[in-house]
Write a structure and sequence with these properties.
There is one protein chain. This protein is mainly beta. The chain is built from 2 helices and 17 strands.
């Protein structure tokens, strides 16, 4: 199957043909048709004007060139598991985009298992990005980039868990760039932590890597709830939530992240106190690590 960074126009419900790039090429079968994605796996967007995003299984085919027969997650050669993670529709500089994010665990056998450089337990984040085009009066999707690795995150060979109770937050940065915060949750030792996984979009691609239009730039905390850990009075109960805000930074630096917290925090044995403005969390992008770090 021929591969290219830019595929031709894909009409709303027609079959995909020859539009995968960035995944493994061996063993690929004919691509699935673009179908409407379930409402619970894609950010709703009024500007989509009836054009549905690709279905999760179509996104997986784009990235990995594997037909999962409609499955949202399945195992591939070498023991690795690939899965659909999150879909996001957005507008930037007058164009409408859709990105489907995916995950792939490290292989457990064969050459891939021996050569992976990911931290143990993490998964590789992949993506396919399409832009809306109109041809002969009909709207459709045109692929602009596919990448099997834009970063790594997660634990226990699973990606970060998307928190569907909160909305994603994004901000246009100029120069064809956009920063996106996807709400996620992490459960550890009876504490549920509310986080945001952060991604930087550059439609012009990275220097020397023009197909890499998305980059993972870290995960920041935005609240917690220790309800399960504090049962029985062993620990003081406290729950908090945080609202993520992007603040301008000097020059072309990525924006500072300001998280206003509300709720309660533990003030001492058996005591809690309300959170106030002084408890805001601030994160800044560290160019050395390529991640947002607490200030």
């Amino acid at each position: 199957m021929k591969q290219s960074i830019m595929c031709g126009l894909i009409s709303g419900a027609l079959a995909i043909s020859g539009c995968a790039q960035g995944g493994d090429a061996s063993g690929a079968s004919s691509a699935p048709s673009i179908q409407a994605a379930p409402e619970d796996v894609s950010e709703k967007d009024d500007s989509m004007t009836g054009l549905k995003p690709p279905s999760p299984d179509s996104v997986l085919y784009f990235v990995y060139q594997r037909d999962g027969d409609g499955a949202h997650s399945f195992q591939v050669e070498g023991g690795a598991t690939v899965g659909y993670w999150y879909g996001y529709a957005f507008d930037l500089e007058g164009e409408h985009y859709f990105t489907g994010f995916t995950s792939r665990s490290a292989g457990t056998e064969g050459a891939e298992a021996d050569t992976t450089t990911m931290e143990e337990g993490r998964v590789a984040i992949g993506q396919v990005t399409l832009v809306q085009k109109v041809e002969s009066g009909q709207a459709g999707w045109s692929q602009i980039a596919t990448d099997g690795f834009v970063g790594e995150f997660g634990r226990l060979d699973q990606p970060e868990m998307v928190d569907e109770s909160r909305r994603a937050v994004s901000r246009e940065l100029g120069g064809g760039r956009l920063i996106l915060g996807v709400p996620t949750r992490l459960f550890e030792d009876g504490v549920a932590m509310s986080n945001y996984a952060l991604f930087l979009f550059n439609k012009n691609g990275l220097p020397q890597t023009p197909f890499r239009v998305w980059t993972y730039v870290g995960t920041v905390q935005a609240g917690s709830d220790n309800a399960e850990a504090c049962e029985g009075g062993v620990m003081t109960c406290a729950a908090s939530t945080g609202e993520l805000q992007f603040e301008p930074s000097a020059g072309e630096s990525l924006p500072r992240i300001h998280i206003v917290q509300s709720g309660e925090t533990i003030a001492g044995p058996g005591r809690s106190r309300p959170l106030g403005p002084e408890d805001a969390l601030v994160f800044e992008f560290d160019a050395n690590t390529g991640r947002y770090q607490a200030r």
